[in-house]
Amino acid sequence: MDSNGYRLLLPEGTLDYFDLVDVQETSSEVVIYLEEKNVVPEQYSSQETESKGFYDPVVVQDFPLRGKKLFLNIRRRRWILKKSNEYISRNWRMVAEGTRMTQDFASFLKELY
């Protein structure tokens, strides 16, 4: 898959936290698949954690691209704290405050809550 061109369509900073894993294009739409990187949130970095997969994907419609609908299929990761068996995930509200992400993308992530 040659996804280099599609990277340019993503809001600045997206690839700091997500991997672009697939792109599917039809005559009427483009779907960009993103998965959160397996990087434990900073506030839990000193604790023993284990990745426990992903939440159900969230599909967001973005601005049209040359007459085609554009969708972002986003899978957020979750981890478990081994000591307490508590599930954790990245707090996107906190990340958006001090990140290079565009306001549009930060607003989208806010809506996930």
What are the SSEs and their pairings?
Blueprint: H1 4-7, H2 14-17, E1 18-25, E2 29-36, E3 49-54, E4 58-65, E5 68-75, E6 77-81, E7 86-88, H3 92-97, H4 103-111
Parallel strand pairs: 2-5
Antiparallel strand pairs: 1-2, 3-6, 4-5, 6-7
Shape: elongated
Whole-number tally of structural domains: 1
Tell me the fraction of residues in β-strands, as a range.
35-45%
Major sheet: order of its strands?
A: 1-2-5-4
Low-confidence parts, pLDDT < 50 over ≥5 residues?
none
CA-to-CA gap between the ends? 32 Å
- From N to C, what is the helix and strand string? HHEEEEEEEHH
On the 0 to 100 scale, the average pLDDT is 82
**Total DSSP E strands:** 7
Radius of gyration, taken over Cα atoms and rounded to an integer in Å: 15 Å
Count of helical stretches: 4
Core attributes:
113 residues, alpha+beta, four-stranded mixed beta sheet, three-stranded antiparallel beta sheet, 20% helix, elongated
